[in-house]
């Protein structure tokens, strides 16, 4: 039995200009363009291996060790598009094995909680599509491949690139111009770091897909957002990235998170993704920026209460003086910072911040946070020799 395999890793991305709303549910075509930062894969990544063989009897997916259904319309769309591209290739070269007619085995692992508001669907669908494109040896560009990932989950199209990424909404009814493009590579602005304050790792109440549909159909504010706010912000944010203008980038990011959550609140009945801890974190970030009289941190929240804080390496001590002070009891610090680093944050707080601080820190905020993930801007999907599939059997290794 000949079993062909391919593997890839894919990253999570966290939007700084949010995708919220679809103009076509089947094709995942958005009502506005969006922008994101791709995060490094040490802490948050999907590893997906795929295999195909004439002898396989059905398409199967094992996600985090468990068999999962591949029946969803979205996944079927991705598989069909990839098979069509492979069939085109085979029709031009009869020496190629007819993989487009064979079944697929897909084995995938996320190294972080799935469906917990940490963008697992983005990394998951990007990895699935990129791994199969690699198995099929498709010559299509990353932007072309991003259109297929988009059909799996809208935000997944942005995880096909590293660095700073835009998803151009496009205007064609068939989605042919709704694709991800690189705004700037990781190397353009490698100093961008991200601290994720995991507020709740539980499954969320309103999934993004239904939440955004509810907003589209019931919120008046939403119309203002997509027509009068986002188009200009999209251009400004791209420019702030090209110019490495953190001040502007941060303000636009915070404003856009607030605007997105305002449309959720304006939905009827309202949707609440942020909780009291999320709101305390927003307040803290504004206090930090005010303290330094400079924007050194930007917060953003997806469809859940977790906070993602973007900041530049050069301001790490200043920011972490506050963040470590408040969240030091949460896990996640030791794996990224040495004891000396942490001591430096504490002494900066004690010697420079505390004597000047005109407000009280809420010492209970850490109770609403389960852990801290310290990461940074990172590359797109990576080739890997690690394979989760046993080539002799075509089944998961463990
Ligand atoms: N590695 C993977 N391979 C294939 N599909 C995946 C993978 N990881 C997640 N998914 C799909 O994504 C779904 C989770 O998506 P969901 O949008 O609910 O959560 P999330 O992406 O973690 O959160 P959010 O979109 O709010 O950031 C899973 O139920 C599964 O169908
Ligand atoms: C708030 C968001 O994270 C929403 C992401 O929504 P999804 O991409 O998960 O939605 P579907 O296309 O229905 O799968 C904002 C963003 O990532 O841009």
TrEMBL record:
<keyword id="KW-0067">ATP-binding</keyword>
<comment type="pathway">
    <text>Isoprenoid biosynthesis; isopentenyl diphosphate biosynthesis via mevalonate pathway; isopentenyl diphosphate from (R)-mevalonate: step 3/3.</text>
</comment>
<dbReference type="InterPro" id="IPR041431">
    <property type="entry name" value="Mvd1_C"/>
</dbReference>
<dbReference type="GO" id="GO:0019287">
    <property type="term" value="P:isopentenyl diphosphate biosynthetic process, mevalonate pathway"/>
</dbReference>
<keyword id="KW-0456">Lyase</keyword>
<dbReference type="InterPro" id="IPR014721">
    <property type="entry name" value="Ribsml_uS5_D2-typ_fold_subgr"/>
</dbReference>
<protein>
    <recommendedName>
        <fullName>Diphosphomevalonate decarboxylase</fullName>
        <ecNumber>4.1.1.33</ecNumber>
    </recommendedName>
</protein>
<keyword id="KW-0756">Sterol biosynthesis</keyword>
<dbReference type="GO" id="GO:0016126">
    <property type="term" value="P:sterol biosynthetic process"/>
</dbReference>
<dbReference type="GO" id="GO:0005829">
    <property type="term" value="C:cytosol"/>
</dbReference>
<keyword id="KW-0753">Steroid metabolism</keyword>
<keyword id="KW-1207">Sterol metabolism</keyword>
<dbReference type="InterPro" id="IPR029765">
    <property type="entry name" value="Mev_diP_decarb"/>
</dbReference>
<dbReference type="InterPro" id="IPR005935">
    <property type="entry name" value="Mev_decarb"/>
</dbReference>
<dbReference type="Pfam" id="PF22700">
    <property type="entry name" value="MVD-like_N"/>
</dbReference>
<dbReference type="InterPro" id="IPR053859">
    <property type="entry name" value="MVD-like_N"/>
</dbReference>
<dbReference type="InterPro" id="IPR020568">
    <property type="entry name" value="Ribosomal_Su5_D2-typ_SF"/>
</dbReference>
<keyword id="KW-0752">Steroid biosynthesis</keyword>
<dbReference type="GO" id="GO:0004163">
    <property type="term" value="F:diphosphomevalonate decarboxylase activity"/>
</dbReference>
<comment type="similarity">
    <text>Belongs to the diphosphomevalonate decarboxylase family.</text>
</comment>
<dbReference type="Pfam" id="PF18376">
    <property type="entry name" value="MDD_C"/>
</dbReference>
<keyword id="KW-0444">Lipid biosynthesis</keyword>
<keyword id="KW-0443">Lipid metabolism</keyword>
<dbReference type="GO" id="GO:0005524">
    <property type="term" value="F:ATP binding"/>
</dbReference>
<keyword id="KW-0547">Nucleotide-binding</keyword>
<dbReference type="InterPro" id="IPR036554">
    <property type="entry name" value="GHMP_kinase_C_sf"/>
</dbReference>
<feature type="domain" description="Diphosphomevalonate decarboxylase-like N-terminal">
    <location>
        <begin position="10"/>
        <end position="180"/>
    </location>
</feature>
<feature type="domain" description="Mvd1 C-terminal">
    <location>
        <begin position="195"/>
        <end position="382"/>
    </location>
</feature>
């Amino acid at each position: 039995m000949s079993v062909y395999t391919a593997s890839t890793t894919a990253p999570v991305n966290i939007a700084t200009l949010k995708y919220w709303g679809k103009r076509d549910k089947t094709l995942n075509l958005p009502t506005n363009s969006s922008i994101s930062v791709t995060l490094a894969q040490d802490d948050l990544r999907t590893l997906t291996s795929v295999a195909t063989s004439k002898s396989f009897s059905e398409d199967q997916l094992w996600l985090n060790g468990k068999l999962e259904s591949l029946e969803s319309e979205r996944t079927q769309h991705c598989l069909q598009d990839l098979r069509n591209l492979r069939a085109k290739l085979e029709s031009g070269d009869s020496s190629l094995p007819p993989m487009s007619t064979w079944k697929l085995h897909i084995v995938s692992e996320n190294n972080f909680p799935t469906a917990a508001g940490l963008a697992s669907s983005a990394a998951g669908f990007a990895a699935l599509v990129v791994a199969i494109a690699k198995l099929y040896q498709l010559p299509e560009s990353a932007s072309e491949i991003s259109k297929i990932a988009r059909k799996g989950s809208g935000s997944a199209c942005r995880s096909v690139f590293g660095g700073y990424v835009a998803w151009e909404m496009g205007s064609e009814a068939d989605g042919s111009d709704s694709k991800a493009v690189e705004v700037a590579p990781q190397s353009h602005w490698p100093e961008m770091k991200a601290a994720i304050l995991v507020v709740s790792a539980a499954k969320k109440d309103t999934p993004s897909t239904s939440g955004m549909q509810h907003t589209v159909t019931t919120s008046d504010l939403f119309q203002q957002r997509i027509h009068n706010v986002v188009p200009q912000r999209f251009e400004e944010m791209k420019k702030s990235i090209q110019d490495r203008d953190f001040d502007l980038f941060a303000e636009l990011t915070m404003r856009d998170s607030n605007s997105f959550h305002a449309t959720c609140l304006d939905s009827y009945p309202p949707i609440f993704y942020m909780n009291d801890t999320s709101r305390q974190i927003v307040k803290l970030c504004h206090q930090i920026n005010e303290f330094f009289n400079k924007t050194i941190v930007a917060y953003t929240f997806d469809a859940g209460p977790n906070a993602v804080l973007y900041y530049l390496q050069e301001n790490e001590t200043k920011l972490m003086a506050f963040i470590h002070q408040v969240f030091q009891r949460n896990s996640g610090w030791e794996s990224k910072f040495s004891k000396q680093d942490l001591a430096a944050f504490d002494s900066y707080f004690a010697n420079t911040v505390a004597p000047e601080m005109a407000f009280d820190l809420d010492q209970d905020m850490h109770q609403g946070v389960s852990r801290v993930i310290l990461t940074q801007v990172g590359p797109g999907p990576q080739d890997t020799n690690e394979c989760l599939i046993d080539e002799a059997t075509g089944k998961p290794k463990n």
